[in-house]
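Quick one, probably user error.
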């Protein structure tokens, strides 16, 4: 009996201790109510979900659907909220609940993205595992203030002779590339990226509404030429929801701004903003926003201006980084006066126009020098370019005018005939194969040869051969002149004479 009493006392002590611990835990607990705003989906269409509820949701705030699907609140009407879906909408049904996230759309940024292929949300699509990043930036960020900007004064060499000499681009500039489809717009942007292979420039290629095969070809070209190691590829294909196509260029710009704010130079290619405008038009019509010219919404200009205004060069006190933008636009039947092209022309600092006529004649790249311009790039050009570019542009423009006149079969005097012959050789010299960007010194040597008339007597079918030999001997025989040119020294008379003598020796030895 005494043994049972002892066991009961021990059990009472254990229970008393347990209740004491439980009482302490209850005393520490602070209960409260958690308030959540919930909405209900009442309609779903391609890329758009309409929600009833969420009275306090903010413009462009992320909302979460069942299964982790996300959307962006775009229309805030008194009766409902229209959200643009950035994930596939097949799993979203009417009647499902929707929650606020209290944050706006953002993407991962950092060194871990370099060399990777990601979608518009920063998620990897290259099969190489997760991306390790250090921060997240919102996709919509304000452009740097005017007082924080520095003049565009450092050149961005494209390696394309006609661009570097006649339509120069500076770091921090916005240069539009436009022309009809399939005439080499993307090729110019890819060659520019290839030319940054050995430079400390982070490249970002943003594919908007492209076919998967086209994106795969670009990635293969970048990998083949060892450019992917310093490139971020942001992909939003035509199969993706229009919401992803809409946010893709903003996401790519935010990724580039991370490096710009670290003091580095960034090159962003938007391929192309025509499809971006169409995606936004599709979303706007689904959202029942009033259409304007060509059924585009009234703020179509603003969506591109606020994107491209983020491209700039920061002043040295803020690191001196830059973000250069190369937006691409597709024209229809050479109509550069259409709505979207004229918008982009007015926003950017110049344009490179590709002509179907030149493309059909085999002039590649098919850049129409007369319709192309760089409004600020001329101030960034190396002095050696300025010494020869003026004569080159004059010879080319005179040739284009006289070429049209000569087609009428009129009898030409000797001076006109010589101008035509030199112009034909200038055009032949400016032809360039894809994936073969030219170093600065080699470009200068070839331009000196043609502007000084050394190639006037060379048959047209041999100009390319002579050009190749001039480039090769420039590297081997005039290293001092090449070094001075690349360091930004003016083109001296001795260096010019040495290039002319070298070119004449090549022409005479092959006569």
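Nope, works fine. Designed sequence:
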């Amino acid at each position: 009996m005494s043994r049972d009493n002892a066991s009961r006392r021990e059990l009472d002590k254990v229970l008393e201790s347990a209740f004491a611990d439980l009482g302490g835990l209850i005393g520490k607990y602070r209960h409260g109510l958690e308030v959540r705003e919930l909405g209900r989906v009442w309609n779903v269409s391609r890329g758009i979900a309409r929600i009833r509820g969420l009275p306090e949701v903010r413009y462009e705030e992320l909302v979460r659907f069942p299964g982790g699907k996300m959307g962006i609140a775009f229309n805030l009407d008194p009766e409902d909220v229209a959200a643009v879906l950035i994930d596939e909408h097949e799993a979203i049904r009417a009647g499902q609940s929707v929650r606020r996230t209290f944050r706006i759309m953002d993407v991962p940024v950092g060194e871990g993205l370099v060399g990777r292929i990601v979608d518009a949300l920063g998620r990897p699509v290259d099969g190489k595992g997760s991306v390790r990043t250090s921060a997240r930036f919102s996709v919509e960020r304000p452009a740097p203030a005017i007082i924080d900007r520095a003049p565009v004064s450092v050149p961005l060499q494209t390696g394309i002779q006609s661009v570097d000499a006649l339509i120069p681009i500076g770091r921090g500039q916005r240069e539009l590339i436009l022309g009809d489809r399939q005439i080499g717009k993307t090729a110019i942007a890819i060659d520019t990226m290839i030319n940054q292979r050995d430079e400390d420039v982070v490249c970002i290629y943003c594919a908007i509404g492209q076919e998967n095969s086209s994106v795969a070809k670009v990635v293969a070209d970048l990998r083949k030429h060892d450019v992917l190691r310093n490139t971020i590829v942001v992909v939003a294909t035509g199969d993706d929801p229009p919401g992803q196509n809409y946010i893709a260029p903003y996401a790519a710009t935010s990724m580039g701004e991370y490096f710009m704010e670290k003091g580095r130079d960034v090159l962003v290619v938007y391929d192309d903003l025509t499809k971006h405008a169409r995606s936004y038009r599709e979303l706007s019509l689904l959202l029942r926003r009033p259409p304007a010219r060509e059924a585009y919404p009234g703020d179509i200009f603003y969506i591109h201006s606020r994107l491209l205004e983020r491209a700039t060069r920061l002043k040295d006190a803020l690191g001196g980084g830059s973000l250069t933008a190369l937006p691409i636009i597709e024209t229809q039947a050479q109509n550069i006066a259409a709505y979207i092209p004229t918008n982009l022309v007015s926003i950017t600092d110049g344009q490179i126009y590709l002509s179907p006529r030149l493309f059909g004649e085999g002039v590649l790249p098919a850049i129409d020098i007369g319709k192309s311009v760089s409004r600020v790039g001329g101030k960034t050009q190396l002095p050696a370019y300025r010494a020869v570019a003026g004569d080159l542009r004059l010879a080319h423009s005179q040739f284009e005018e006289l070429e049209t006149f000569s087609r009428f079969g009129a009898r030409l005097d000797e001076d006109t005939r010589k101008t035509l012959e030199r112009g034909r050789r200038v055009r032949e010299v400016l032809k360039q194969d894809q994936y073969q960007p030219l170093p600065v010194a080699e470009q200068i040597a070839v331009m000196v040869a043609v502007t000084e008339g050394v190639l006037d007597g060379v048959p047209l079918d041999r100009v390319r051969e002579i050009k190749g030999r001039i480039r090769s001997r420039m590297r081997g025989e005039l290293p001092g002149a090449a070094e001075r040119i690349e360091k930004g020294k003016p083109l001296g008379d001795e260096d010019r004479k040495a290039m002319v003598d070298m070119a004449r020796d090549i022409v005479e030895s092959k006569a």
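The mean pLDDT is 90.
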